[in-house]
Amino acid sequence: KSTMMERLTKIDALTNLYNHKTFHEYLEFLYEQSVSQGMPLQLAIIDIDDFKMINDTYGHDKGDMVIRKVADILSESVTEDEIVARYGGEEFTILFTKKKLEAAYELLENIRLKIASQQYEDLDEKVTVSIGLQNLERDMCKTDFFQKTDMLLYTAKQTGKNLIFVEGITAGGENQQAENRKVSPEAP
Known about the structure:
It contains seven helices and five strands; from the N terminus they run ααβααββαβαβα. The protein is α+β, with helices and mostly antiparallel strands. It has a five-stranded mixed beta sheet with strand order 2-3-1-4-5, with helices on both faces. α6 links the parallel β4 and β5. α3 packs across α4 and α4 packs antiparallel against α5. The termini are far apart. The C terminus is likely disordered.
């Protein structure tokens, strides 16, 4: 009974992924470990594009189906070294440990394409996601790490959706935005 109660406090009931609270516990622990031991750490925030329209058009049961399918793709695509959580609503997070930024990006690109190519029962729309990906830098506090990732997600959504925006893969400034768009083309 105690084990079951503990599981209920850590797991999101709809997706069977870690929940918001558990994500923050892992973020705290992994941030401290990364800072003290120089371990690589990246954070991705993933948001289902136009999710309100899916709920409004097809109903919340279809919205829940989409959330579960995206969660399944995320959990099937990662290794035991990554921490996947449902952050809330239609947002998910992944903490990457033991990966270089480029490897985390490649895994996310495969996830993005897989989600966009899925067929969803009774939906006429394609389901896509926007993603922000940030590498933990030496001078970043935990709050900056999360906020910078969230800003990258916001940029992906404002730039056209179905994109990954990454800090540190390409040159900075205006070129970065153009490059990130180029390396994350619209899914077929």
